[in-house]
Amino acid sequence: MPNPVVNKASTEWKGELFTGSGTTSLDTSGTATFDVAWKSRGEESGGTTTPEELIAAAHATCYAMQLSNMLKENGTPPTALDTSAAVTFVAGTGITGIELTVSGTVEGIDAGTFDEIARKAKETCPVSQALSAVEITLSDVRLA
Which candidate, 68, 64, 143, places its Cα nearest to that of 107? Predict the structure, then answer.
């Protein structure tokens, strides 16, 4: 049985929601600390990060890893994959959807097979599964 791996992050928040702010830290790796504030989350993007941006980063990373492994299992390991995730947040409603895109450089595969594997990877990616309460779409799949 594989060892469970636990990763940690933390946030220090000061003040109330609309005028307060904080910092979010990637505690396990120690590689980054990000400023967070409501304005970037609920009013206009930019300036500080948001939970949704962090979710998008996690989802794009997990999806790239899952697709890479599935392509290898198909006998067509990728040379490169460029994945992105866009997480939509509506104040008062919450996260309303996630849109994934992928462009890949993969030798020996046709566009149809790449599309099929990319869609299966979306369904089996652990982060996709964890976020399945919202609609996750794969809108742009293409070979580079």
Answer: 143
